[in-house]
Each structure stands twice: as structure tokens, then as C-alpha cells.
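User: ok so my PI wants both of these folded by tonight, can you help

Assistant: No problem, let's get them done. Here's the first:
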Amino acid sequence: MIGAERRELLLARLEEHGIIGLEESASALGVSTMTVRRDLEALEHEGIVSRVRGGAVATVKARSFTERQGTGDAAKTTIAQKALDLVPATGSIAVDASSTSGHLLAQLRPATELVLATNSAHNHARARTVRGVRAVLLGGELEPRTESFVGPIACAAAGMLTYDRFFTSASAVDAEHGTTETIIEEAQVKRELVRAARETVLLLDSSKLDRRAMAVAIPWSGISVLITELDPADARLDPLRDLVELR
């Protein structure tokens, strides 16, 4: 098997499992771990993967709302179902520009008198369809890579309201840094929303665990609850168990 064929198979394993395990991949392909390690180095040089202990994961990159919306639907639906009970019928909440938050809005129950602020035109449009919800769009400069509104105007608008809860996802999460984002300006808006919120709820599919993007956004001290599609007792959550409430 030539190198190009091996690397295609490695990427297929990444698509299926969310990670390329060094030992498992070597066994599956019938080659040495050193051969797999060289293939991972080549894929990392191309910017496709990032090597981690024991293998590699997909490189964290900015993707449009449409691209993000089409991935991980089952996990995002489970996360949204878990988060529904934390959405009040009255008061005010903030929602980020993530597709995971979009899944939450798609399942939102009719409210009594709820103000919902977001820096996403997509999520604003979804919120407007829910009875009893007054949707507020936090304007600013449109970030074309994530289709969110960012910049000083968006940051100022985010701080003009107070919120009972802020629901947000992240590009990546690790125990040391908290949440990190691919876009610096996106991280800035999220920090303003955290400051204005009584509680912050992190909605995160498990593929983003133990990973790191460029811009530090929210430290663990700013997050009240972490909701994933996993059972809270899952060992993959062990590094975060003492940092945040798990659901």
C-alpha cells in the first residue's frame, strides 16, 4: 500500500471515530506505528490534522454555519434536549452563533415573555419563530468565516443587556484553558456575554474535548454547567469533573 492510500484510509478512520489512534491504525493497516506516525506528520504538514498523544485529531478550523449545521446532528440533538429545561419561560437569555445553539432553538418550547439575544442572523431567525420569544440581534461586523457578528459594536451591544443564562458552544475545550475559538473576535463577543450573564451553559459535543484552538475565550471559572451528549459518568469527562457541573 502506497503512502497516499494509507493516508486516505487514515482520514476515513478520522471521519468515523473522530480520532486517528496510532496503535489501532497501525494494526488495522498492517503497518508499523512508525509508518503511521510519518503519515500523521505529513497530514499535519498539510494542515489536515493536529497530532495529539497517541494519534491525531482533525485540525480546528473556522467553518461556516451551514458547514457546522450539517455535522454531528445526533450529538447536538441530545445536547439540546438536555439543555431545554435550563431555558426559562420569562426573563432574558443570550445564545451564541453556534449550530449547537441552533439545535437548541429548533426545539425551544413556547415561552411566556422571553428576550433572546444572539450575534447570529441564523439563530435570530430561528428564535423569531418561537411563540413568546422576543429575538434581539446583536449587530456589528459580519465575520464571513463563521457568519456571526463580531467587533466593537457587537461587544458593546452584548453588554447592553443582562441575561439569566448564556448558552454557548466552542471550537475546542481543554482542562487548562477552558474554551478556545478559531476566531479572536468571536472569543471577544463571548467574553462580553459571559460578563453580562448570571450563568453560562456550555453546549459541547464530545469531539471537541481535549482540544485547543487559537483564541482563549471562557475560563472554567466563567462556566456554570457543561452539557455534552455523553453520560456525565463517562471517563472522557474525568479531566473536567472538578472544574464544572456536568450534565
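One down. Here's the second:
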Amino acid sequence: MIFEFQKRIYGYECDVYGHLNNANYLQLLEAARVEAMIKMGMSIKRMRELNLQILIRNFNLDYKRAVQHEDLITIRSWFDEISRIKQHWIQQIYDSSGRLCFEAQMLGVFASEGRAQRLPVEVFEVFHLYQESKAPS
């Protein structure tokens, strides 16, 4: 499933050129992933109740076009690979004209108390229901 999250870009998030500051991209991606997990019924609060975490192992960032001050962006988030130990997320940011501005790929490792751990089967099955096999068109 592809999850969408929208947000307007404000001045305090921009650099002196009026572009979204590169340091803020990761915060936006995190917000979009958290919203996706809430929609899946696996909020951070729920994960904590289960004594589970997702630790980021790797991020690959591809800046394609500047995101402008006051633009209303859409972040599309999905994961295309999941096992009981790791999950691969893809996230894309589009401007209000529908142009792709940014793409990120994130590899997360499931953990408990800061150490890698296999997901319980019932939690894996919840995540697996939302796995997306292809990129949005």
C-alpha cells in the first residue's frame, strides 16, 4: 500500500535561498513513515507496547529538484521488502505540481532493547498486509 502525507513548507524549514533545508528532509520522511505506521495499526506507541523498535541501518537520498518555500508537498511512502528482521522503505516527495523532487530508500532493522530481533509472526503478518510490490505510477 502506498501511503500519502501532505505538508506545507514554512520559512523556518528553508535555507537562505528559499529551498527546503537538506537537514529537514529526514524529519519529513520520519513524519510520513510514522503516519503510515499509525494507519497500519503499528504506531510507535503500539511498537513500544510490544517492546519493538525499528532502527535505521541505511539511508540513500536522491535530491532531484528543490522543494520551495510555501509549497504543499506530498510524500508517498511504502515498503517493498520485509522479512522478520528488516524492512526496506521507499519515499518520494512531490511538489504541488506533481513533479518528483526527492527520493529516499531506507533500510530498517527490527529490534528490541536496541538489539536486532526477529518480529513476532503476528506482527510480521500485520506489516506484510501493507507491503507494496511496485512503485506508484
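The chain has a mean pLDDT of 93. The chain has one domain: 3-128. Good luck tonight!
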